[in-house]
Amino acid sequence: MTKQLSLTARLSLMFMLAVTGVLGAAGFFFFQLSQHHFDELDRHTLEDKLQASRQLLRGLDDLARFDALRPQLQALLGGHSDLAVRIVDAEGQVLFAASGAAYAAKPHAHGSVGADVQRVWRRRTAVIEVAGRPLSIELALDITTHKVFLNTLAGWLWGALVLCALLSGVLGWLLARSGLRPLREVTLVAASVSAKSLTERIPAESTPAELQQLVLAFNAMLARLEDAFVRLSNFSADIAHELRTPLSNLMTHTEVVLTRARSREDYQENLYSNLDELRRMARMIDDMLFLAKADNGLIIPEGQSIELHALCEKLLDFYQLTADERGIRFVLSGDARIQGDPAMLRRALSNLLSNALRYTPDGGTIELAIAAGEQGVSLSIGNPGVGISEQHVPRLFDRFYRVDPARREGSPSNAGLGLAITRSIIEAHHGEIQCSSRDGWTSFDILFRLAD
Hints:
By secondary structure, the chain is of the alpha+beta class. It has three domains: 7-174, Beta-Lactamase (2-Layer Sandwich), CATH 3.30.450; 209-295, Helix Hairpins (Orthogonal Bundle); 304-449, 2-Layer Sandwich (Heat Shock Protein 90). Helices cover 54% and strands 17% of the residues. The chain contains ten helices and eleven strands. It has helices spanning 7-58, 70-77, 100-103, 144-179, 181-192, 209-258, 264-295, 308-326, 342-359, 418-428, and strands at residues 83-88, 94-98, 121-130, 133-142, 304-307, 329-333, 337-340, 365-372, 376-384, 431-438, 441-449. The strands form three sheets. Strands 6-8-9-11-10 form a five-stranded mixed β-sheet, with helices on one face. A four-stranded antiparallel β-sheet has the order 2-1-4-3. Strands 5-7 form a two-stranded antiparallel ribbon. 16% of the residues are buried. Keywords: ATP-binding, Cell inner membrane, Cell membrane, Kinase, Membrane, Nucleotide-binding, Phosphoprotein, Transferase, Transmembrane, Transmembrane helix, Two-component regulatory system. Its EC number is 2.7.13.3. GO terms for molecular function: ATP binding; phosphorelay sensor kinase activity. Its main location: membrane. The chain crosses the membrane at residues 12-31, 156-176.
């Protein structure tokens, strides 16, 4: 498998390429500008000499008097060591020549003079009518020094580009390594995280703005893991605590029975007592298995059309006898339809109604209100009573949690899993459940959101 470049190497390489690209473009444009500047100087020099020569020759009305212009032409054209001039008539006879030795070989765009120096010339040719006869003016400017300077400049630019590329690579590596230090700190903290060090956090104040969101998300993940681990530890302790009581009862009853021989009725009574404890343990294990499936998304409700009013009426009929014994009255209002699993919803609402009956004083009224709104269908179950303290409300749906500090072991209906199962069922139906308790009135509000 091909080894991937590290992030530091990638950043330093990109930084080097960016710097090299910028400097290379700047050097190229500088070189082109210098070359254009020298080309313009050479053109102006040749054009000025040509225009001055035309002015002198146009004032000549007879070629026989050409010798009279030689001193002026010599002064105009012969004073430049890098300029070669020839004036030739129509028959090819050279009427005037300056720097003839350098130009004797008839230089072209890349001619050579001498054996040791490679020279470069720029030519300019024009034809002038003098006394009715055409004269050809040939100008050649030696631009060797310009070319040598440009070649030297190009070499220096290439050298500087290579040097800057190397320096930018090293500098980019140092900057990338320094800038990625907070990321290495995140890696070290992540590597050191264990079940005993979930309280560690990465300080977000000293991290760059680009990494603050990552650090905050990582710290939030650690907080969730810490909370989940604490809940799991408490859940394990609660399981051991809840199972210890029925097991102790079973062991005690069995040991008492085995101390001496007993009658058949005594054995049956103890077996029935053991059976009650075993049933309680079986219910508790079933509830814990249900919650474990819910946590892993394995609870998939059936998609049946349910009329909530009819479902609640059946549940109220089931609890009516218990309510009549205590003078408690049920009030059911509203109606709506939802899609869901009737058996699961019946179990969830049964848990809420049994809690309401347990804590409603004799002669009280339990209200059930159903309503359909823009967000979905709401169902509220409220009852009067002592109420629940604010410190307990956020944890009501935790497993094995009881508001009453006395755990009330031995009561099979109070294992502390009913509200946790209710929340799992409601969430499996894409709903939400909340509890509010104030002024002696406790209400559990359920919202079944509309499907997208």
